[in-house]
Amino acid sequence: MITFRMNGLEVKVEEGSTLLDAAKFYGLEIPTLCHNEGLTPFGGCRLCIVEIGEGLKSKLVSSCTYPAEEGLVVRTDTKRVWASRRMMIELMLAMAPGSKVLQDMASQFGVTQVRFTPRNEECVLCGLCTRICAEQMDARAIGFQQRGHKRKISTPFDMRSEECRTCGACLYICPACQLRCQGPNAETVLCNGCLTMEPSCLDHYDDLQCWMYDAGRCGTCVREKT
Q1: Which fold has domain 1-77?
Q2: Which of 4, 9, 43, 155 has its CA 20 to 30 A from that of 167?
Q3: Running DSSP on this structure, what letter comes out for residue 207?
Q4: Rounded Cα distance, 2 and 72, in Å
Q5: Measured between alpha carbons, how far is 200 from 217 in angstroms, rounded to an integer?
Q6: Radius of gyration over alpha carbons of the chain, in Å?
């Protein structure tokens, strides 16, 4: 067993576990988009980042790919972590503003603006479709092409693939395919129809201080301090 500290608590997990595995085992919620229990870890969306280490030596890592290590210090909900998650949500919303999954995440994390030019590509390159096609359907009909801003997912040579069985698994797992409530012709990039209050704990403690995350947004801990 590996022993380390997570959010100030001593935790123990089996060797080979990731930080995301440990968080889930102890009931800590960490948002994910490109992660799926039945697929290999990808670490592409960066929403599951956590902060490891202390002081100036601390750094952000993706919890779905980072292994649990003996004596490690982990914090899952610091101001730095939330700021990074918000930035990633903004970037992905600019790519796929029609995604209900991303719109819900924006509301959950208090994202009220998108500072990037909308591209409306309706794909966030999470790789879920390519992995489920290869690992669960054993087809490998689609994959990544090119690099940088030209990167995309398609069939070989952009032609109809003979390996594709039109099973629909790629559509089923795609977060961008779940259409937002306003439909495909929404006037704004952001919905914010379900916007929640920002956790006031972060400004005072640099960490979310409540195990029941939604309760942390009421500001009770701040009122108790004052």
Answers
A1: Ubiquitin-like (UB roll) (3.10.20)
A2: 43
A3: B
A4: 10
A5: 6
A6: 19
Q: Which two tokens stand for residue 214?
A: 């939604």
Q: What is the mean pLDDT of residues 30-42?
A: 94
Main-chain dihedrals φ then ψ at residue 52, nearest 5 degrees: -115, 155
CA distances from 58 to 51, 80, 124 (A): 6, 10, 28
List pLDDT tens digits, range 46-84.
999 999 999 888 999 999 999 999 999 999 999 999 999
CA 139/CA 136 separation, integer angstroms? 8
Among the CATH numbers 3.30.830.10, 3.40.50.1760, 3.30.70.20, 1.20.950.20, which is that of 88-177? Answer: 3.30.70.20
E strand or H helix that includes residue 51 = strand 49-52
Q: Which residue has the higher pLDDT, 208 or 47?
A: 47
pTM: 0.85
Confidence of residue 225 (pLDDT cuts 50, 70, 90): very low
User: Of 211, 217, 199, which Cα lies nearest the Cα of 23?
Assistant: 211
Name 6's bridge partners. 9, 74
How, if at all, do strands 2-6 and 73-75 pair? parallel
Q: What is the pLDDT of residues 156-201, one digit of tens each?
A: 988 988 899 999 999 999 999 989 988 878 889 998 888 766 666 7
Residue 123 contacts residue 152 (beta carbons within 8 Å): yes
